[in-house]
Predict the 3D structure of the following.
Amino acid sequence: MEHAEEHGAAAAHGPMEQFEISPIIPIHVGGYDISFTNSAMFMVFAVIASALLFWGGTRQRTMVPGRLQATVEMLYEFVADMVKSNTGKEGMPYFPFIFTLFLFILFGNVLGLLPYSFTFTSHIVLTGAMAAFVFIGVTILGFVKHGFHFFSLFVPPGAPLVMAIGLFPLELFSYLIRPFSLSLRLFANMLAGHVLLKVLAGFIISLGLIFGWIPFAAVFAVTMLEILVALIQAYVFALLTTLYLNDALHLH
Amino acid sequence: METEAAKMIGAGLAAIGVIGGGVGVGTVFGQYMQAAARNPSMSNELRTFAFLGFALSEATALFALVVALIILFT
C-alpha cells in the first residue's frame, strides 16, 4: 500500500474500489441523478463493439466465409442452435432477445477483463434488472399463452395427489427464486473474479521485484480462468433464459 | 467484541460454505468425463448439461461468498 502512495499513483485501498460507479457527465433532472457514468460508458462500448462485429461480419456475405464472417456465423449459429433445440419452433421468435442478452453479457464480461476497464455486469442492479426482465417477460408469456393452466407448471406430471399438494409450494418457491439466482450467479461470478484479481495484483506490488513473479503467475492463470468464466457465464445466462422460456411455452 | 472483528470472523465462517461448490463442480465434470469416456459419441450432447450443471453448482457456492461479502462490507 505504501509503495502506491509513494509513487503518487491513485491510492486504492482495497479490492472493492474498482466497482465504484463514478459519473462522467453529471445530469440531474428534477432531483434524479441520471448521470452518464463509467458503467453506462462501458455498456455503450459493449453495444458498439457487438454492433461493429456484426456489421463488419455481414458486409462481404461470401459463400466461403472469411475470418470475421465465420466468427459472426459461429456466434449466431451457436445461440440459434441453443434456442432451437431447447424451445423448438415456438421459441424462435424470441431468439433476437436471447441473442441480444447473450452478446450484451458476453461483451460486458470480456470488456471488464481489459486493464483499467469497468465490468458493468458486476453490479447486482444491472444483472437484477436483466433477470427481472427475463422472469417477468417469461411469466407474462406463460399466462398469456396458457391462462390459469400455467399453474400446472408447478405440479410435476404423474405425481399422486397427496405428493402434488406438498410439491406445489416447493415448486412455486423454486420458480420465484429464479430471478434472484439468475442475477446473483452472474453478479457473484464477476464480482468474485475481479476481487480475486485485484487482491493477487496487490500481492505483486507488496512482494516487490524478487518474489513478485509468483503472484504474477497467479494473476496470469486467474485471468485465463476469468476469460473462461466470462464466456461460460454469458452462455449460462442465455441458456437458463431459454430453458425458462421453454418452461413457459411448453408446460413440461 | 468490536464490530470490525466480528465482521471478519463472520465473513470467514460464511466463506466455508464455498466448499460445497468445489465438491459439486468436481462431481459434475468428473461425471461428464466418465460419461464421455463411456460413450464418446454423446459427448457433444452432454456438454450442454456439463456447463449447465457447473454454473448452477458454482452459483450455490457463490451465494455463500455473497453472504460473506455482505457480512464484511455492510
User: Anything to note?
Assistant: Chain B touches chain A through 14 residues (CB under 8 Å).
